[in-house]
Write a structure and sequence with these properties.
With 224 residues, the protein is α/β, with parallel strands linked by helices. It has one domain: Alpha-Beta Barrel (TIM Barrel). The two termini are 21 Å apart.
């Protein structure tokens, strides 16, 4: 598995569509991340807060660390000082904890609201009404240390490309609606995170700004 070649190939393909690569480095050693870094990659996605914090200490300061996995409220403190983007805000309680830890770290933490678009019940996420409720001015004024930078969603894990496209299209529709009607200094709507190794091309065609690709870059993961 040639990490450099994979990074260069994906970057070239994505840039034609104005989409950026989040290289999913979860469970991967620091050496693999260094190899991707040396190939020019700067955005890396992790799904465990303490693993991300440990890697952040060992690697260059200009890396942008993205939290892409389900985030427990008691783990936010480990990443609040440095995380570049949290993709997986799936509840008001989590958003309030991010705000609290952002205040302690004296910074505004960029977040994406995770929307449930898949048919699988196992996926996390907010529904449309819950997303819009979080964007109410009276809610946001209590959360000065978060920026809502966009939305994230995971499509159903299926070979039915029409279904995957429909789910991504629905998320893009909600993204556009929020951008048009709810944008503010705190709701910037710059990022639409959708698409992984198996469906990134459809996501890209449907307007994704960030795709999350791991195994196609680093090879199969080793889980303990």
């Amino acid at each position: 598995m040639n990490i450099r070649e994979n990074i260069e190939r994906f970057t070239e393909e994505l840039e034609k569509n104005g989409t950026r690569l989040c290289a999913v480095s979860k469970t991967k050693p620091v050496e693999d991340i260094k190899e991707a870094y040396e190939a020019g990659q700067r955005v890396f996605g992790e799904n465990k807060a303490q693993e991300m914090a440990a890697k952040q200490e060992e690697l260059p300061d200009d890396i942008q660390w993205h939290m892409i996995g389900h985030l427990q409220r008691n783990k936010v403190k480990y990443i609040a000082p440095f995380v570049s983007l949290i993709h997986s805000v799936d509840s008001e309680r989590l958003l309030r904890e991010v705000n609290k830890q952002g205040a302690k770290a004296e910074r505004v933490i960029p977040c994406l609201l995770q929307v449930h678009i898949a048919e699988e019940e196992t996926k996390f996420g907010l529904d449309r009404e819950e997303v819009l409720a979080l964007l109410k001015p009276e809610t946001l004024q209590e959360l000065p240390n978060v920026e809502i930078r966009g939305l994230m969603g995971m499509a159903t894990n299926t070979d039915d490309e029409a279904l995957v496209r429909k789910e991504f299209k629905s998320l893009k529709g909600l993204f556009d609606e929020i951008k048009e009607n709810h944008s503010s200094e705190q709701v910037t709507m710059k990022e639409l995170s959708m698409g992984m190794s198996g469906d990134y091309q459809i996501a890209m065609e449907e307007g994704s700004t960030l795709v999350r690709i791991g195994s196609a870059i680093f090879g199969a993961r080793n889980y303990d």
